[in-house]
Every structure is written in structure tokens, then in C-alpha cells.
TrEMBL record:
Keywords: ATP-binding, Nucleotide-binding, Translocase, Transport. SUPFAM superfamilies: P-loop containing nucleoside triphosphate hydrolases. Residues 2-237 form the ABC transporter domain. Part of the ABC transporter complex HmuTUV involved in hemin import. Responsible for energy coupling to the transport system. The keyword Metal-binding does not apply. The keyword ATP-binding applies. One of its GO terms (molecular function) is ATP binding. This is Hemin import ATP-binding protein HmuV. Gene3D superfamilies: P-loop containing nucleotide triphosphate hydrolases. SMART domains: AAA. InterPro entries: AAA+_ATPase, ABC_transporter-like_ATP-bd, ABC_transporter-like_CS, P-loop_NTPase.
């Protein structure tokens, strides 16, 4: 659905990413993990077309992304970056509705999408609130709902850069369950940047490890998440245990370094 071939960026030292290949397919939830400054946000910016690559090709449903008109692109690819500035006193419902603009949905269909996402993300009681009055976690859930309203009416690509950073534990699991549903039941290709290894292990189907401006490894989550590899990536000893349901549980040893 979204294919990167030899994609790279080296025009600025702070946003450097060595050439990599990646194919995002419908029905899959793909995670991205790595230390701060590794290149995760640069990866999302490149894949979304917000950052111009210095090399390589990027294709959305077989077409060069740069040649797809912006409004048409927005119907097939939606992105949430880390910072979502909004300084106007819109209602929460109006902010979420902004995501539907590229789709030209009939009003009843748009309202149904808004209400469905408000229910899924615990926002029903906030729909009439002034967006500027929200807490950080509430505002992030609203921005997530805005992005997800924009998802294509047919399977499309959803790119999310640290979408859980301000959410409490319950809302983190709630959001990840929704992302997985959008992938598996609606056929969207979802890529998200995460910092929590255990959430990555529990919810993602595949994983990219990024470090020092390079995609170091990619593949099925259970094969990529090896304690030795993770310890090397994060420069802290990491151990893996098994939960009662057979999933990996990862812990780091406080105060220890490799």
C-alpha cells in the first residue's frame, strides 16, 4: 500500500536517515521503536511526504507520492506528528470534524464517524467542550480522533508519531486496540512510533528498530524483539520474561549500563 525503496534523508545533520526499504501492507499494525534522536520522527515525516527525501522512491498504492495531488493524497494517507498546535477555541466536535474535510463525506456519514470515534476513544462527554480547556491527554485523544476520521473510506495508510505520549494506561490500551481493529477489520496499514516495549510486544504485528539514523532491523515483532538486540539499541540491560498468555514481558535493570 505504501512502499519505500532506498528512501533516505541527509540534508540536515539533525534529521538524517540512511537508505531503507519498507512496505506497509493493509491489515498490519507496524511499530517503530528506538532511542531519542534515532530518526523515528524523520522516518514518519519521509513516509508522509512532509519531508523531501534526498534519495529513493516512495509509492502510495503504486503511484509516486510526490505526483499525487494533496487532496487526493489525504484521502489515502493520514498522519499525526508529535506536535499538533491549535490555538483557536473550537469545540472538540469541530476539531475532530476537520479530519473529514478531504473525504467530502455527506454530513450524516461524517457525524457517524465522529460519534463512533468519540465512543471508541472515550470522548463523548467532551464533544461540546472548548478544545483549549482540555488537559494534555484529552487534547491528544481529540487529535487522534481527528486523524482517524480522515482515514480512507477504502483501506488506506495511517502514520502516527508517538500517539500515546500523553495518554494514561487505560487510554493507551484503548487506542492500541482501536488501531489494531482498524488494521485487521478495516484493512488499513497502520504504522506508529512507540516507546513502551511491552505495548509494542502486545499489539504490533511487525516492528522496525531504528538507531543512529538507520533502520537496523525489521520483521515480525516476536523475532525482532530479542533482549540482546534491544539492550544494545538502548544501551541498558533488558531482560525478557513470558506472561501467562505467552507474550513477552520486557524489563530493564535500573541503574545498570552495558
Amino acid at each position: 500500500m505504501l512502499e519505500a525503496l532506498g528512501l533516505a534523508h541527509d540534508r540536515t545533520a539533525s534529521r538524517r536517515l540512511l537508505p531503507f526499504d519498507l512496505r506497509l501492507t493493509g491489515g498490519e499494525l507496524c511499530g517503530v521503536i528506538g532511542p531519542n534522536g534515532a530518526g523515528k520522527s524523520t522516518l514518519v515525516a519521509l513516509l508522509s511526504g512532509l519531508l523531501t527525501p534526498s534519495a529513493g522512491a516512495l509509492r502510495l498504492k503504486g503511484r509516486e507520492l510526490a505526483h499525487v495531488p494533496l487532496k487526493e493524497r489525504a484521502r489515502h494517507l493520514t498522519v499525526m506528528m508529535q506536535r499538533q498546535p491549535l490555538d483557536f477555541a473550537f469545540s472538540v466536535r469541530d476539531v475532530i470534524a476537520m479530519g473529514g474535510y478531504p473525504l467530502d463525506l455527506p454530513l450524516p456519514a461524517l457525524e457517524q464517524r465522529i460519534d463512533s470515534l468519540a465512543t471508541a476513544m472515550d470522548l463523548q462527554h467532551l464533544l461540546q467542550r472548548n478544545y483549549l480547556s482540555l488537559s494534555g491527554g484529552e487534547a491528544q485523544r481529540v487529535q487522534l480522533a481527528r486523524v482517524l476520521v480522515q482515514r480512507g473510506c477504502e483501506p488506506s495508510v495511517i502514520l502516527l508519531d508517538e500517539p500515546l505520549s500523553a495518554l494514561d494506561l487505560r487510554h493507551q490500551h484503548q487506542a492500541l486496540a482501536l488501531f489494531r481493529t482498524l488494521a485487521r477489520q478495516e484493512g488499513h496499514a497502520v504504522l506508529l512510533v512507540l516507546h513502551d516495549l511491552n505495548l509494542a510486544a502486545r499489539y504490533t504485528d511487525s516492528l522496525l528498530l531504528i538507531g543512529n539514523g538507520a533502520v537496523l532491523e525489521q520483521g515480525p515483532t516476536d523475532k525482532v524483539m530479542q533482549p540482546g538486540r534491544l539492550s544494545e539499541l538502548f544501551s541498558v540491560p533488558i531482560e525478557r520474561y513470558q506472561t501467562r498468555d505467552g507474550l513477552g514481558l520486557f524489563t530493564s535493570i535500573a541503574g545498570s549500563e552495558l
